Amino acid sequence: MAQPDPAHAAPRLPHEVPASTKESSLTLERGLSLLQAVADAESEAPTISDLAARIGVSRAAVYRLLGPLQSRGLVRREGSRVRLGLGVLWLAGRVLPQLRVACTPALRGLAEKVGATAHLTVADGSEAQAVAVVEPSWTSYHVSYRVGTRHPIQRGAAGRAVDLPVGAPRWISSSGDLQQGAFGVAAPVRGVPGLRASVGVVALQPIAADEIGPMVVETAEAVAEALR
């Protein structure tokens, strides 16, 4: 029987995905769902059976999915129960440095344009923490704002902007909330899963919020784009 000419074989349509790729994507999705299910356990560690029910696979599939996660230290087994591993802490420790690298260009542009210290603030429970700070290079004086500084999330423009609801004013301003004589404007960083944050500026003189606010909002949008 004559063999078909490869040159005349039906071309693969652009939307067709090889079966191996589909299977790999499905395995990755299930592995991530399994890790999320372990992380979501608030009290007693889930069992293999619990995890199988939560992600909709067999117990045998859970055992297969646990292998790569265990080898990387992301989960650990205690008999039939599964807990998060210390590898998750290592990953978490890499988040903030990469966050700073990603958002620094946008913050630098804001600081230079406004002539005030720009910062990215992230919510940590009931507190707000400055995780990236850029000071302007051309001003005679400006606020020195230390990375790692924490304050209640209900105080200051940076904290209150974190959970600013959609439909509210696009930015928030403050005066003397955290330090007497300091003025701030901040806007929320939206659209980054798992991140509650704001971008803001702080200065030692009154800030024209109507003029600076749109710049802060634009920078917050640029930071969100850099982090997606």
CATH topology assignment of the largest domain: Beta-Lactamase
User: Strand order within the widest sheet?
Assistant: 5-4-3-8-7-6
CATH class of the largest domain: Alpha Beta
Task: Give the total of domains.
Answer: 2
Helix content: 40-55%
CATH superfamily placement of the largest domain: GAF domain
* Residue windows where pLDDT falls under 50 for at least 5 positions: none
Number of strands: 8
Rounded to the nearest angstrom, the radius of gyration is: 24 Å
Could you characterize the architecture of this molecule?
The protein is built from 7 helices and 8 strands, in the order αααββααβββαβββα. The chain is α+β, with helices and mostly antiparallel strands. The protein folds into 2 domains: 26-84, Winged helix-like DNA-binding domain superfamily/Winged helix DNA-binding domain (Arc Repressor Mutant, subunit A, Orthogonal Bundle), CATH 1.10.10; 93-226, 2-Layer Sandwich (Beta-Lactamase), CATH 3.30.450.40. The chain starts with 18 loop residues before the first helix and ends with a helix. The longest helix is centred in the N-terminal third of the chain and has 22 residues, at 19-40. The strands form 2 sheets. Strands 5-4-3-8-7-6 form a 6-stranded antiparallel beta sheet.
Summarize the structure.
With 228 residues, the protein is an alpha+beta fold. The chain is 42% helix and 20% strand.
Question: What are the key terms here?
Answer:
8 strands; about 230 residues; alpha+beta; Beta-Lactamase; elongated; Arc Repressor Mutant, subunit A
